[in-house]
Design a protein that fits this description.
The protein is of the alpha/beta class. It has a single domain, classed as Alanine racemase (TIM Barrel). Helices cover about 40% and strands about 15% of the residues. The protein is built from 9 helices and 8 strands. It has an 8-stranded parallel sheet with strand order 7-6-5-4-3-2-1-8. β2, α3 and β3 form a beta-alpha-beta unit. The longest helix has 18 residues. The radius of gyration is 19 Å and the shape is globular. About 35% of the residues are buried.
Length: about 240
């Protein structure tokens, strides 16, 4: 794995997508998805200039973050269970996957106990996929005011995961819809929302063209994630058949 070469390639793709859409590359933040990567790989990524990392599971992050350089920044990007709220508030500087009023209330409770304000992104299931988490667009607009009223929560924008497709252009309507939703939310709140977190390794070029301010990249930087070890079934030791 040549991390430096991978990062150069990613930055070139970001610059090209920004050029096509008339944007400054500095307007796009790269979140390095370190799910499944050991602290040694995170340290190597830090050595070539990466400082913002995204984790999918609180338990993995809780074990990993203390072993990594202290100056790094961490975002929670995977589904967040309400019973992990306390640890999430402690270990992450932003929670990108807030998908319900109930979860937001739980985060608000733990942020209040920690005497801190928690920046969040509201996750939207734009395509309505049954297997994915996230607000329905109508539900998001219905609950937006209540989430915004929570004193320890700061809404910084929206996040989505587009359906997987081998053709990135097919994801464009999803990214466009999230941008439109952000504009609707801004009208409701009467304030700008600075972030759209959308786009992963297979489709982030299109996401940038549609307004992404954060792209979440794992495979493009670290290569294919190693498969979990195969669990062999125990040998049969019973009687003859």
């Amino acid at each position: 794995m040549d991390l430096a070469a991978n990062l150069r390639g990613v930055r070139e793709r970001i610059a090209k997508a920004c050029s096509l859409s008339g944007r400054d590359p500095s307007s796009v933040t790269l979140v390095a998805v370190s799910k499944g990567q050991p602290p040694e790989v995170v340290k190597a990524a830090t050595a070539i200039g990466l400082t913002l990392f995204g984790e999918n599971k609180v338990q993995e992050a809780k074990a990993k973050i203390p072993l990594c350089p202290g100056r790094l920044r961490w975002h929670m990007i995977g589904h967040l269970q309400t019973n992990k709220g306390r640890d999430a508030v402690h270990f992450f500087e932003m929670l990108q996957s807030v998908d319900s009023l109930h979860l937001a209330q739980e985060i608000n409770k733990w942020a209040d106990k920690a005497a801190k304000t928690m920046p969040v992104l509201l996750e939207v299931n734009v395509a309505g996929e049954a297997a994915k988490f996230g607000y329905r667009p109508d539900q998001l607009l219905a609950e937006l005011g209540q989430v915004n009223a929570l004193p320890r929560i700061e809404i910084h924008g929206l996040m989505t995961m587009a359906p997987w497709t081998p053709e990135p252009e097919r994801a464009r309507p999803v990214f466009r819809r999230l941008r439109e939703l952000k504009e609707q939310c801004e009208q409701v709140l009467g304030a700008p929302l600075p972030h759209l977190s959308m786009g992963m390794t297979g489709d982030f070029d299109v996401a940038i063209e549609e307004g992404a301010t954060m792209v979440r990249l794992g495979t493009a930087l670290f290569g294919p994630r190693p498969l979990p070890a195969q669990v062999r079934p125990p040998e049969y030791t019973g009687g003859t058949s």
